[in-house]
Amino acid sequence: MFQSAEIGNAIDKKAYKAEAPEVREALLAMQERMADRGLAVCVVIGGVEGAGKSETLNVLLEWMDARGLQTHALRDPTDEERDRPHMWRFWRMLPPKGRMGIFLGTWYAEPMADLFDGAPRSQVDQTLDRIIDFERMLHAENTLVIKVWLHLSKAAQQARLKELGGDPDRRWRVTAADRLYRKHYDRIREVAEHVLRRTGTGDAPWHVVEGTDPRYRQLTVAKLVLKSVSERLDQLDALAGRPRPEPDRPRPAPVNILNRLDLSAKLKRAEYEKRLVKLQAKLARLTRKLHRRGRSMVLAFEGPDAGGKGGAIRRLITAMDARDYQVVAIAAPTDEERAHPYLWRFWRHLPGRGRVTIFDRSWYGRVLVERVEGFCRPEEWRRAYAEINAFEQQLVDAGTIVVKFYLSVSADEQLRRFEDRQQTPYKAHKINAEDWRNREKWDAYEAAACEMIEKTSSEAAPWVLVEANDKLWARVKVLTAVTDRLEELL
Amino acid sequence: MFQSAEIGNAIDKKAYKAEAPEVREALLAMQERMADRGLAVCVVIGGVEGAGKSETLNVLLEWMDARGLQTHALRDPTDEERDRPHMWRFWRMLPPKGRMGIFLGTWYAEPMADLFDGAPRSQVDQTLDRIIDFERMLHAENTLVIKVWLHLSKAAQQARLKELGGDPDRRWRVTAADRLYRKHYDRIREVAEHVLRRTGTGDAPWHVVEGTDPRYRQLTVAKLVLKSVSERLDQLDALAGRPRPEPDRPRPAPVNILNRLDLSAKLKRAEYEKRLVKLQAKLARLTRKLHRRGRSMVLAFEGPDAGGKGGAIRRLITAMDARDYQVVAIAAPTDEERAHPYLWRFWRHLPGRGRVTIFDRSWYGRVLVERVEGFCRPEEWRRAYAEINAFEQQLVDAGTIVVKFYLSVSADEQLRRFEDRQQTPYKAHKINAEDWRNREKWDAYEAAACEMIEKTSSEAAPWVLVEANDKLWARVKVLTAVTDRLEELL
After folding, report:
1. How close is the nearest chain A Cα to the Cα of B214, in Å?
2. pLDDT digit string (tens) for B315-339?
3. Is the model more confident about A37 or about B3?
4. Are domains B3-239 and B269-489 of this chain identical in fold?
5. Closest Cβ opposite residue B336 in set A53, A75, A336
6. Can you name the CATH fold of A269-489?
7. Which residue of A has its CA nearest to B361?
8. Domain A3-239: which CATH class?
9. Is the pLDDT of residue B174 over 80?
C-alpha cells in the first residue's frame, strides 16, 4: 500500500514553477463549476506525523478561493458533541453544496486510535463499515469525498523531525504528539494500512502521497483534488439533462398492515380523562428519570393529514419539563438544509443527553411524500430505507430511545376532519388545496407507508401503529407506548 | 408594579368559550402576516413559580401553527455555550424572520439569580443595561420582543402549590425548585420588581399578568401577543412603501487618519524572511499559551480590495495549530443568515476557549459597503457603531482578545494589483467588474473607513492601521501587532 510512496518522489523547482500556475488556475475554474453544479466536496487529509498535513492544507487555502472553502481540524469533542451520536460532530461540519471542506482529522481518528490502543479488530471493522456506509451516502447525495494519506518512510520521518527540531525558530512545529508517534512508526503504519485497505472504496478511494518533498506533495495533492472533482463534475454534467423524476404511485396489497387495523377502537371521555392523568404523571416521572440517567429520546410522528399528530404530541409535552423537550415541526427546508444531504436537517435537531426531540413528520418524508410526489428519484428513495435504518441504529447505539408512531385514520374520517377544519375558522389554516389533492393519492400513500413500516421496523427502533379514528384512543395509545418503552429501557 | 395582578382577575368558562375561538383565529392570521412581512418575534415568559409559565407556553403551542413556532427553555449552559460570551446561547436561539420563539428562561435568568444571591445592584444594573441594548437592537432589526411576567400573590402561590401537592397524579408539577422558591417569595418579588422596572422600555415593555385563573391568564397572554405583534405589523406595513435607501457617499477630510499613513514604508526581502521566521515562532508559542490559558482571540481584517488581507492571514495561520484557528471569509449571507439580525452571522462563528477566529472582512461591512452602496438605511448604519462597540465589548468581557486590522493601500497601488490580477490567470478570479466600479467610490470608502475607525477604536478592541503598499511590511506589521497583543494580555 505504501511502497510507491517511499521511493523518493520529488519535483524540482523549475518544473514546479512551470506547473503550479496552471494548476492554480484550473482549481479556481473547478471551484466555479462546483458552485454552478452544487457539488460539495470533503477533502480528508490524513497521514503520519511530519508528512506535511498542515502545510498541504495551507497551500490549498492559498491556491483556491477562500470563499468556497472551509477547514476543520479536530480537537477533543465538546460536551454537546459527546452528548450525541459519534457522527454528529461530522454532520455539523459537512460543507454545503458548491463548497469544499478540508478536514485534518476526521471520522477516521477514533477507529485508528482504537486499533492502535489494541481494540479487537472485529470491533473496529464494524466502525469502519459504518464509515463506508456514511461515505457512500455522501457520494450519492452529491458530496464527493477525497481521501489523501500523506506517507513518509521511517527514515524520511526521522530526518524530517530531526531537521525541524534542530532549528530553534522552527522547533515549535514538532509537537509532543509528533515525538510520541515517532516512537511508534511501525505500529501506526500497520494500523493505517489496515484502515486504508478496508475503507478504500470505489466511490471514496484512498490516495497515498509521499510527503518527503514539499513540491511533489503539494502539486500531487492539488492535482488529485482537481482530477477527482473534475471527473465527478463531468458525471454530473452528463446527468444534468435527465428528465425530472416521475411520481411513484404504488398500489397497496388488498390486505395490509394498515387496513388490517381495527379503526373502530375507541375510548369514553371519562375513561380517557382518568387514564390521561395517570399516564401523564407516569411520563413526568419517567422523563425525569431519563434526564437523571443521561439518556435521550427521539419520537417521530407520521400518518395522513388530520390524523391527530399535533394533539397526541401536545398530550406528551404537557407532562414534560419544558427544558427537556423540543418539538420540531418539519416544513419546507431552508436553503442551508437543502444544501446538505437530506438527513442533515434531522441530525441538527438531535437531542443531547437527558433530552427529548419530537419530530412532527420526519426523515420518513423521503419514502412517503418525496416518493409519491416525485420530489426525489427512485434510486434515492430506494436507498433511503437502508440510510434511515443506519441513522436510527446510530441513535440507538448512542443510548437514544427511538419510537416511531404511525397514526392511521380512514379516508372517511379524514374527510370528516377536513370538513370540520374548513368550517372552524381557527382550524382552517390546517388545510389547503394540497391536502385535498393528496387525498386522491390515498392508495399510493397507504402502499408507501406499508412498505416503509416493513422495511424500517426493528426491535431497537419500533413502529407503533395507532388506530386514530378516535382521538382519545390514539392519544392514550401513544402515551402508553412511550411510557412502556421508557419503563422497559431505563 | 404587581398590584393590579393581585386583585383576583378571572374569566368565567362561558366568556372564555365565547372569546377563545376568535383569538385563535386571529393568532393564525397574525402568523401569516408575520411570515409575509418577515417579522420575527421573541415571547419571553417569566414569572413566579406556580403561576403557569409552562401551561401558557403549551396553550400558545396549541393555538398557533407549530410550523412558525419554536420553543426554548433553558437548562444550564453547555460547555460550548460556557466557552463563549454570555449572550451567545441566546443569539443561537433567535427566531428567524417570520417565526416566533417562545422562551421560558432567558437572558434575565442570570441577572435575577445574581441579584437574588446578593450581588451588588450596581453590577447587576450594568448587565441589565446591556440587555436593554440587546433588546433595542432586536427591535430595530425587525425582531419584536414581548415580555410577559406571570404573577401570583403570596397567598395565591401558597394555595396553588398546596393544591398541586395534594393530588398524587399532579404532584410532579411541583419541583424542588418550586418548594425552594416558595420560601423566598418576598425576596423574589423584590428582585423581579427591580429588574422589571429597570428593563421595561418603550420598545420592549414588561406585561405583568395575574396567573391565578388559568382562563384569564391564557386569554390575556394570547391577546397581548396578538396586540403587540399586530401593532408592530401595522408599523411595518406603513413603512413598506418607503423607497430603497440611497447610497451614502461621504467625502473624506483633506487630511485624515488614513491618508496620513506613510505608505512608502517597506521591507527588504532578506530582512522580511528573517523576521517572518522569528515572528511565526513567537506566534506559535503564544497561541499555544492562549490555548493553555483557555483564552480566545478574534481578528478582523478590513481594507480596500487587493490590500493583501489574504496574504497576511496566511502568514498568521501557518504558525498556528490547525485545530486552533478558523478563517471565515465573509461573502454573501445565506438565507438563514439574512433572516436574522446582521450580527448573527458573526456570532455563530465566535471561537470557543483556546481558539482563534480570523474574519476576512467582518461586521464592519455594515458601515462600509452597506453604507456606501445603499444596502442599508442611514438609521441602520448610524446605530451600527454603537451595536458593534457593544458586540466587541462582550467579547472582551468574556476574555477574548480582539484586534482589528485596516490594510491601507493607495489607489495607484490598488490599480497596479488589479492589472496584475487580470493578467495572471490564477489571480483573475479575485477581480471582477464590481471591483472596478468600487474604485470609482474610492473617496467615499476612505471617508467611511475613517469614520468607522474613529467611532470603534478602543483600548480593549483596537484598530491597527497597516501601511500595505509593501506586502512584506504589511505582513510583518500584522504579525508584530498580534504577537505584541498576545504578549501583553496573556
Report:
1. 15
2. 999 889 888 899 999 988 888 999 9
3. A37
4. yes
5. A336
6. Rossmann fold (3.40.50)
7. A67
8. alpha beta
9. no
Please answer yes or no on whether A69 and B25 come within 8 Å at the CB atom: no
The reported pLDDT for the residue numbered B465 is: 97
Contact B216, B339 (CB under 8 A): no
Binary contact (B424, A21; C-beta < 8 A): yes
**How is chain A split into domains, by residue range?**
3-239, 269-489
Task: Write the residue in A55, A66, A425 that is nearest to B310 by C-beta.
Answer: A66
Report, as an integer, the average pLDDT of B305-311.
92
Q: Do B424 and A71 touch (CB under 8 A)?
A: no
ipTM of the complex: 0.78
CB contact under 8 A, A335 and B334: yes
Among candidates A21, A62, A323 on the partner chain, residue whose Cβ is nearest the Cβ of B74: A323
Contact B288 A329 (CB under 8 A): no
The whole-number pLDDT of residue B18 equals: 94
Nearest-by-CA chain B residue for A53: B322
Cβ contact (<8 Å) for A78 and B78? yes
pLDDT for position A21 = 92
Distances (CA, A) of A10 to A48, A211, A276, B482: 18, 9, 75, 36
Asked if the Cβ–Cβ distance from A78 to B80 is below 8 Å, we say yes
CA dist., res. B191 & res. B185, Å (int): 10
Percent of chain B at pLDDT > 90 equals 77
Which residues on chain B are in Cβ contact (under 8 Å) with A73? Answer: 321-324
Block means of pLDDT (10 residues each) for chain A, length 490 residues? 87 94 94 95 93 90 87 86 92 95 92 92 92 94 96 90 79 71 86 94 94 95 97 93 90 92 96 96 95 96 94 92 89 89 96 95 96 93 94 95 97 91 76 77 95 94 97 98 96
pTM value? Answer: 0.87
Which of the residues B426, B431, B483 would you substitute to probe the A interface, choosing the one with the greatest number of A C-beta atoms within 10 Å? B426
Looking at residue A78, its pLDDT comes to 87
Q: Do A323 and B73 touch (CB under 8 A)?
A: yes
